[in-house]
């Protein structure tokens, strides 16, 4: 039984590595030129993307990350970036997309009896990778365009 689990976990690590390309493509669609311009106009800060990444890394589930994004959309200090500029809506759409991706990935990696129990783990794993790629894209599209620097320790 242990060999089966190890084999599935190894396949999962391979699939997650392969998924980075899909995640990068999705992030590029989400944070395109129009969104970058709206975020610049709204005064978006790198710290907001870093906070999203930190929340994703610490959250027990992708649903918790979605709840945090909805909170940012309604919060006065962050409403302009997360709600009015459209970042929150875009991130929430991507959270839904990530759930379907996690379902598909679970179907490929795990036996039928394990898919349902492992799917939430895959969803948050994809969410964490997505948040990292979104932060990197933000640095490339928004921070660099405004002449700012991203000299913090998160890659």
Question: What does it look like?
Answer:
The protein is built from 7 helices and no strands. The chain is an all-alpha fold. The chain is elongated and about 50 Å long. The protein starts with a helix and ends in a 12-residue tail after the last helix. Residues 1-6 have low confidence and may be disordered.
Summarize this structure briefly.
This protein has 155 residues and is an all-alpha fold. The protein has helices at residues 2-30, 33-42, 46-58, 62-74, 79-84, 87-109, 112-143. Helix content is 81%, strand content 0%.
Layout of strands and helices, then pairs:
Blueprint (H helix, E strand, L loop, with lengths): L1 H29 L2 H10 L3 H13 L3 H13 L4 H6 L2 H23 L2 H32 L12
Helix pairs in contact: 1-6, 1-7, 2-7, 3-7, 4-6, 6-7
Please indicate the percent range of residues in DSSP E strands (runs of 2 or more). Answer: under 5%
What overall form do the CA principal axes indicate?
Answer: elongated
The whole-number mean of residue pLDDT values reads: 87
> What is the rounded distance between the termini?
37 Å
Give me the number of helical elements: 7
> Helical amount among residues, as a percent range?
over 70%
Q: Could you say which structural class the secondary elements and strand pairing correspond to?
A: mainly alpha
Number of strands: 0
Please give the largest β-sheet. Answer: none
Features:
155 residues; mainly alpha; 7 helices; 81% helix; elongated; disordered N terminus
